[in-house]
Structures
1.
Amino acid sequence: MKTIHGFLFAAALLLPAAVFGQGLSAEAQKRVDAVRELAVGWAANPAVVNAVQAQNASPGPEIEAMNQGAWASLDGHAPLVRALSANDAAKFLREARTDKVTEAFVSDAKGRKVAFLAKTTNWSHLGKPKHDEPMAGEFWQGKIEVDQSAGAHQIQIAVPVLSDGKPIGSLVVGIAIGALQKD
């Protein structure tokens, strides 16, 4: 019980009063919406679109063979992890990143990673709203959480990666909760 109380006390200190609880304040939601608009632009960047198109067309044997268990066993120095964090789409995300962003990753049509700022906990998000809703052309917004891969209190949003107006992949962006109270 002490751990739970300690966590709740720490959460109360870390989370702004405007976002502590079930939802976001109107002001915090405006800031999330502003990051979502940035993410829409990032998802339309040629480096991101081209990387998703290329992986959808020809994923290669390493991508095809990857599964969650194998992904979890890879460290940050594995060739596939290095490749997905150093390709043109990942470089673009790194350059476009703002101080509000805790993480960003791009997935192909099957939910498999195409590019990211840092290795994600999950290899594929196929079957999860953060991927499936953007693949249906919708925006997605999660709940406030402590993200395992980013190690931060955040809220995730996801937008579709489009080609000729049709979803071909998804872009998920984690937003730091503390940044929602800053201008």
2.
Amino acid sequence: MPGPRKMRARIETVDATTARFVIEESLGYLVNAAARLLARSLHHRISRHGVPIGQWPFLMFLWEEEGLTQKALSHRIPIDEATTVRTLDRMERDGWVRRTRNPYDRRQTLVFLTEAGHALEKVLLPYASEVNEMAMQGLDQTQRTHLLKLLQGLVARLQTDHAPWPATRSVAGNHTAHPPENESAGGRVRERKGRRRTGQPSKVEVPPK
């Protein structure tokens, strides 16, 4: 058993370490708070059109590229596969998407937008631009570009950590995290639009987490 001096030294070390941790200076806290506030602002705007915030990333990726598998959507967002299925069930009931079997691999389900889902693009994207502009107000173009590159690099580095994701229960439409992947439909049955979207959340280009 350590003597009084050793015990005191240990306590002082722990206290010193704890004292240096300031929540408002914590990267994890700040990024998480920013993400939640961005989601809150966007949800306030898009929910009036019957689209909850949990469906937003699905629409974003499908506007950019249709014919993705359910698994690919899960990994790109990222979100767990069970929540992906429940969210797509709801989106299908709402008339935004349709699902079909991949003719090249019947085990895969491909996701496409309906006409109504396509129509949402012109309605909802201006809200995303509005929220992004509000968040970056006061930053010049150089600062904005630098901020985005810093965040992209942060995501790219964290993607190399293969820690398991926490098991969560979530309702369809709620955003839950899951490991990323860059896989699209096995049979390449898709419609590539070849253009980037400017909303939030958006696909992160890894500078080749």
3.
Amino acid sequence: MGNLFAGPHLVIILIIIVLLFGAAKLPALAKSLGQSARVFKGEMKALKEDDAADAATDSTATPPAAPAQSPTDRPADQDNPPRSS
């Protein structure tokens, strides 16, 4: 499988591509492929920048607040306050 794009195999693949798409459509196909690759590269760069920015804000963020007490953690007198008559 490593020799698929070497020698006569490459020529056969190119001939099949020309037959499928036609010689007139190949420049447009190459242009759209190049634009897609450029957009993909730009998006990957933006994602890396976003990750770097998130990492910078995470290191300067305040620590999370202490969790609220659950009803089982409170003393019994807080659950049932004394009734006034």
